[in-house]
Amino acid sequence: MTEILSQDEIDALLTAVSSGESVPADIGGIGGGGVATSSASTPVKRDKKRLKVYDFRRPDKFSKDQIRTLQMMHETFARLTTTSLSAQLRTLVHVHVVSVDQLTYEEFTRSIPSPTTMGIVNMDPLKGNAVIELDPSITFAIIDRLFGGKGESLKTNRELTDIELSVIEGILVRVLGNLRESWANVIDLRPRLGNIETNPQFAQVVPPNSMVVLTTFDTKVGDVEGMMNFCIPYITIEPIISKLSAQYWYSSIRKGISTENLSLLKEQLGEVEVEVIAKLGATELKFGEIAAIREGDIIRLDETIKQDAEVIIGSGPKFLGKPGVSGNRRAIQIREVLTTITEEVLQDILLGSED
After folding, report:
1. How many other CB atoms are found less than 10 A from the CB of residue 82?
2. Which of 44, 178, 240, 336 has its CA 20 to 30 A from that of 79?
3. 148 — phi, psi (to 5°)?
4. In a 3-state reduction of DSSP, which class is residue 218?
5. 179-195 burial, b for 16+ CB within 10 Å, e for fewer?
6. Residue 331 host element (H or E)
7. Coil, strand, or helix at residue 330?
8. Which of 168, 142, 165 is nearest to 153 (CA)?
9. Which burial class, exposed, middle or buried, applies to 229 when counting CB atoms under 10 A from its CB (0-12, 13-18, 19+)?
10. For the chain, which domains are there?
11. Could you give the strand order of the β-sheet that contains 117-122, starting from the edge strand earlier in sequence?
12. pLDDT of res. 40
């Protein structure tokens, strides 16, 4: 009588044939002859290393390199947020990236509490919206700190009042400013805060099965610790997906240092007020002579009237010039440059102006 083999027995038989191992004797009585003989049953190990689980309902949209680039960008965002919130709340704030994952939007909304604080963010010039979410413990700790408290969280979660919503809106706007700076090497992002939702079911920025990239931050305000999430839909970030690579990231940083940042630095320095002093001359007097000076006395200087005066900027002389009059105001005409304005001289000038 012919015995029909099960699928598991067929798989085991094929594995044994391809590897040259003995066929187990308990597979349909074949083990006694034919392919191989064995007096004892030899277990066959199936190769599972070649198997990879793939869920077609949530396909991977981002490569590992793109995930790493997003993590580097948001690590910069975390450092900036740590500094800005610490200064605003006047307490120790620590923010750092925990993970960057890709999942469906439905999985994200199911993973956060309700009620919570969800800011809908317009990602101009990118199309679509993102979501920034603050854990209730962090939200109430920030509110308590701004209202003059020690920064304690509530024991029970509740909806935010209108005043509390207005306060937390200002915090989110400030945080989004850091987001723009951290994305500057990839795109000139201009994030704007739209409305704030407390129920995740009302914040449907994309369909539930759409893929998103979720960056989770561990956030600590004083002694209160919680999570902050930043969720970006794939359809929003798709136009710049090719720029999310380590190579583009580092090349953009080098380019920014040499051109864009330098131009921005020069523009900002152009508005800095610096004290300029024209030193006509100098002399030395004894303290008794200084104490005896009266109105109308003449102090003789070491320089002659024909010598150029020193023009001092910061802590030292930078030019020589001829004193005179321009219109109704005293002036000095530059006749010689003593020091070229280099980075070291510029730093000296700025430090001198601060003093």
Report:
1. 19
2. 240
3. 100, 5
4. strand
5. beebbbbbbebebebee
6. strand 329-337
7. strand
8. 142
9. buried
10. 1-51 (no CATH), 64-265 (3.40.1550.10), 272-354 (2.30.330.10)
11. 93-104, 211-221, 224-233, 129-134, 117-122, 192-197
12. 46
Give the mean pLDDT of 299-323.
Answer: 82
- How many whole angstroms separate alpha carbon 346 and alpha carbon 352? 10
DSSP-based three-state secondary structure for 294: coil
In a 13 Å sphere around the CA of 95, the CA atoms on its Cβ side amount to 26
**Dihedral sign of CA atoms 191, 197, 198, 200 in order:** negative
Tell me the backbone φ, ψ of residue 326, rounded to 5 degrees. -125, 105
Q: Exposed (0-12), middle (13-18) or buried (19+): which is 9, by Cβ within 10 Å?
A: middle
What burial class does residue 213 get, using C-beta atoms within 10 Å of its C-beta: 0-12 exposed, 13-18 middle, 19+ buried?
buried
CA distance linking residue 91 with residue 303, whole number of Å: 56
Cβ atoms of 212 and 108 within 8 Å: the answer is yes
The number of angstroms, rounded, from the C-alpha of 42 to the middle of its chain's C-alpha atoms is 57
- Two structure tokens written together for 231: 């969720």
pLDDT tier at 35, thresholds 50, 70, 90:
very low
Residue 134 backbone dihedrals phi, psi, to 5 degrees? -110, 130
What distance in Å separates the CA atoms of residue 210 and residue 352, rounded to the nearest whole number? 57
Q: Tokens at residue 160, please? A: 């935010």
What are the tens digits of pLDDT across the range 202-245? 888 999 888 999 999 999 998 899 999 999 999 999 888 888 87
Phi-psi sector, 296: left (phi>0), alpha (psi -120 to 50), beta: left
Show Cβ contacts of residue 287 under 8 Å, excluding neighbours closer than 6 positions. none
Nearest in space to 140 (alpha carbons), one of 172, 176, 110, 116: 116
| pTM for this model (two decimals) | 0.56
